[in-house]
Amino acid sequence: MSISIIGGADGPTAIFLAGKFGHLFLIFAFLILVFFYGIYFTKQIMQKRQGIQTRQLGRRKEKEIRTTEILLSAATVLIVPVEVFSILSDWSIMPIVVRIGGILLGVLGDLIFLVAILTMKNSWRAGIPDKDKTEFVSHGIYQYSRNPAFLGFDMMYVGILLIYFNWLLLVFTVWVIVMLHLQILQEEKYLPTVFGDEYLRYKKHTGRYLGRKS
């Protein structure tokens, strides 16, 4: 593991502190990833036991939706080894304050994702359902965000990027966030066909990512 000097200083004290913080960054980064994917896969297992297919990415026949979801699936899978490699290599050019901010953002992203999944219950899917019927959810955290799970995703990815900033991870993080946004736009076209005016009213008063509209 490489050691960066805090604040550009030199000397044994700075090296010692850099090494100590480096270990803490590694631990927190892995905890953020493990907690996040633990939520995802636990939900998937629980729904599978009830005969529910959680992961619906790439199952739709419409070409535009299918292409977006396949690219999103690829992005979310490929970014994981890049994140792990960045963490194990201690590959970062960010100052310590920014890296600590990344930890806070990543933890908050995990918590928002957890609350979103718990609120959605068995209506949550990864991708646009092909045949499954789900309930419309607009209470709890969904009063303040139409896409809190996606918001949690974005915050987690950006959090890890800030902890271990490097250009390779930046490229993959931007790719994932762009694909998540495109997926949201696809879902915004789909949801009115299922929930009609109820969704349109909700969309009018609730922000795509965060906030209430008057």
Structure explained in plain terms:
The protein has about 210 residues and is mainly alpha-helical. It has a single domain (about 15-205), classed as Four Helix Bundle (Hemerythrin (Met), subunit A). About 65% of the residues lie in helices and about 0% in strands. It is built from 6 helices and no strands. The protein has helices at about 10-50, 65-90, 95-120, 150-165, 165-195, 195-205. It starts with 11 loop residues before the first helix and ends in a 9-residue tail after the last helix.
CATH top level assignment: Mainly Alpha
Domains, number: 1
Number of helices: 6
The general outline is: globular
Q: Got a strand count? A: 0
| Structural class assignment | mainly alpha
**Any idea what the radius of gyration is?**
19 Å
